[in-house]
Backbone:
């Protein structure tokens, strides 16, 4: 653009309207407007429109975005900076719900919980190490200590061995129940810790969350 | 570009560049200061472009999140605000592509805005509008008639004070195109506002 203005040059008029044109060009446009009613009306109309546009204000919403979580590490786009995917959240919810159900049964219905756990331990709860250890002890008794467990047993001896085996099984089941209870308790503790962490850090350790309004 | 607010905290006297540098060094509080400084303008931009309050807030939040994650790659070739505006506009564009119906946005750039304004059907009178809406809603409604590019150009110019060149950089178009978009957009808005009875001269409604 130079120091001349051609009537109807809308780009130049826009530059004039927003005061983004050179001094010479501005002077040329101003001189033209002084003699051209059409261009004067055009610029005037657009100026009025601009005034009206100033009435459009966005709603006064509360924003207060903040980075939440650890403020000591450098920004980076690692996997944990993203919220958990939906499938992971669902899986976690199912696990937590299941653990809650088991805990609830144990805490509020001890008899039913014991009844539910014991048969399960018979099928899947007793670990293989326990079974193997018991098996080895029985074989030791049978093969290495024939004097302790003679080949031909009378009824009283059989009854004694059966009693001993039942005690061993009960002891094994007791240890497994304790182990299971400890596992559930540990899971519950971890869950409580996770919930606390999530609640205190928004959707993720590097996420942006809505926080309380700050002093301004 | 004028940031929204500068609370009285001494730290707020830092420039964007200083806060960006500290943020890149791991100082999250500095990034929080950038958020505090720019959240209002960014929200306003998102709201005016997509026209929905909640979605604009989501876009605003996502813009800052993306900016934070991309901060290590931000080398400062552009102003932080320009970079943030670009991120926001890209998010707005994505949102519009997913949700917007806006048949007017399909208007080709060479369409005569006067013909378009004249072709628009009957609209509510000023009496009807004044009875239930403020001028801000009338303007908002008029803005809906604009194609996305014109609407964005006007928003960036009128409400964020960007220069023609800054708008051209953000929109990836020549300077002359920005001026054309502004002129056509203002013309459509002018006709729409006149049809709604909002004819004023020098700040006085007639």
Residues:
């Amino acid at each position: 653009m130079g120091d001349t203005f051609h009537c109807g040059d809308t780009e130049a008029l826009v530059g004039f309207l927003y005061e983004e044109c050179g001094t010479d060009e501005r002077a040329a446009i101003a001189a033209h407007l002084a003699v051209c009613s059409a261009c004067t009306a055009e610029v005037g109309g657009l100026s009025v429109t601009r005034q009206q546009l100033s009435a459009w204000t966005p709603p006064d919403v509360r924003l207060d975005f903040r980075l939440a979580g650890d403020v000591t590490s450098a920004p980076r786009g690692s996997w944990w900076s993203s919220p958990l995917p939906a499938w992971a959240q669902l899986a976690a919810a199912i696990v937590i719900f299941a653990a809650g159900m088991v805990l609830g049964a144990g805490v509020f219905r001890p008899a039913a919980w014991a009844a539910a756990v014991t048969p399960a331990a018979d099928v899947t709860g007793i670990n293989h190490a326990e079974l193997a250890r018991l098996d080895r002890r029985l074989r030791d008794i049978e093969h290495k200590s024939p004097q302790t467990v003679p080949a031909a047993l009378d009824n009283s001896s059989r009854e004694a061995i059966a009693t001993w085996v039942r005690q061993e099984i009960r002891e094994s089941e007791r240890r497994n129940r304790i182990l299971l209870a400890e596992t559930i308790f540990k899971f519950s503790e971890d869950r409580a810790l996770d919930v606390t962490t999530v609640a205190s850090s928004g959707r993720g350790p590097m996420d942006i969350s809505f926080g309380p309004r700050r002093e301004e | 570009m004028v940031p929204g607010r500068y609370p009285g905290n001494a730290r707020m006297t830092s420039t964007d560049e200083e806060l960006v540098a500290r943020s890149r060094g791991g100082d999250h509080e500095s990034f929080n200061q950038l958020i505090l400084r720019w959240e209002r303008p960014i929200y306003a931009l998102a709201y005016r472009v997509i026209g929905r309050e909640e979605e604009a807030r989501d876009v605003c939040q996502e813009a800052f999140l993306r900016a934070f994650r991309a901060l290590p790659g931000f080398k400062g070739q552009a102003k932080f605000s320009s970079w943030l505006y670009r991120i926001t506009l890209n998010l707005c564009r994505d949102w519009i592509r997913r949700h917007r119906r806006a048949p007017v946005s399909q208007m080709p750039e060479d369409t005569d805005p006067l013909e378009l304004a004249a072709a628009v059907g009957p609209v509510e009178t000023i009496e009807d509008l004044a009875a239930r809406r403020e001028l801000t809603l009338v303007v908002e409604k008029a803005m809906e008639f604009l194609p996305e590019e014109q609407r964005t150009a006007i928003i960036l110019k009128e409400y964020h004070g960007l220069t023609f060149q800054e708008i051209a950089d953000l929109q990836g178009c020549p300077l002359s195109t920005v001026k054309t978009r502004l002129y056509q957009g203002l013309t459509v808005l002018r006709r729409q506002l006149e049809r709604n009875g909002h004819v004023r001269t020098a700040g006085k409604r007639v």
Q: What stands out?
A: Residues 32 and 64 of chain A are 50 Å apart (CA to CA). Helices of chain A lie at 10-17, 23-33, 37-53, 86-108, 110-125, 128-143, 155-201. The first helix of chain A runs from residue 10 to 17.
